[in-house]
Amino acid sequence: MPHPIMFSDDDLGLAELRQIALRFPDAFEKISHGRPSFFVTKMFAMYGGSSKTAVPGTMARFSHSLLVKVDEVDRAALQRDGRFFFPAYLGPSGWLGLDFTAAKIDWAEVTELVDASYRLVAPKKLIRELDDSTHGAL
Question: In which domain, by residue range, is 93 found?
Fold first, then answer.
């Protein structure tokens, strides 16, 4: 049974996230688990997510958010920032979420997060291509 669609094309930040994510070499979008997700060979970003709450069996929805894979070196600092959350299901695999409703969205920061996530999952050939195109600047 497919997941229900959990977004609208006019959702907060989705159009901007699409513009950022789809500029990466070989990046494409598909719906995964009812949400817009951005892939290269593996997923490197997702729009929307949820997090487990202190009440067993309940989840907090972060419908307007970005999920990205983060480097372990950056994880502790990002987790101290109240805009970030530990996403259900993906968190144990090195992912964090950025809540777009927690503060004014810093699109330069979003671009950096998406770039770092892409670099963690993309094949080396595509990372070289990214670096060669305008020296990695998106």
Answer: 14-127
